[in-house]
Amino acid sequence: MTGTVFFKMTGSGNDFIFLDGRNTELREWPAERIRAACDRRLGVGADGVALLWPAGERAVRMRYFNSDGSSAELCGNAALCSTRLAAYLELAPPEGMDLHTEAGTLCSRCVGPGWMAELLIPTVGVPGPVAISLRSGERQGFHGIVGVPHLVLLVDDVAQVDVGGRGRALRFDPSFAPAGANVSFLSRSSDGDAEWSMRTYERGVEGETLACGTGTVAAAVALAGAGLGRFPTRIRSGSGAVFSVTGCLGDGEARDVWLCGEGRLVFTGIFE
Fold it and tell me: Which residues are catalytic?
């Protein structure tokens, strides 16, 4: 068989098609081909496509695209998957690597013998309160940047939220124009494994995804900044998987923020 090898990966349910940049070129992946590959009926099916290249002895470069073909500066789950895949392909050492992204260079590392990884974000500005019209069951909103824009909305019960409808309305709210924002709905959890539960509507995918790494970081920092939580923070994603976020809060920002989550290889295939 001939063609381009791909790696199907998942970060707590947020799934990706990964390509080894040594075997394919960025110009071979225009938006229409990315959309076709991400189609869940006529393609492989994914929330996005990522290309990975070696970038030195202890470094790799990731370029990430949403399922609609648009480029994104950073995707936390794709970064966790990049870390695990880079170690699997022996592009960088598992105990620590520099991950070059469109949002800057971040440190990451593999954790344990399974598929867990950690991503270090040196500083994260505390998301600030945002003035939006709240609906029944919605309590407070925070807006900030973690690689990409995020709205974190505290609600009474995430299970009752119409993530597709309400998320899309808020994603295109004039308050966040022109870039828009990912929208994460967050409520307290009675589950002993996590203090909070979260569901996310992602721009570029234009629908609910089962997990959002950078959204989880935005939520954890927003909670800490508002005095509603403290590090380490454990947040259950829509898939049921639990993320852990640690950091130090002070002077309007969180420092040394580590996101821990899954970066699992599901299968390998070939594009004919």
Answer: 75, 212
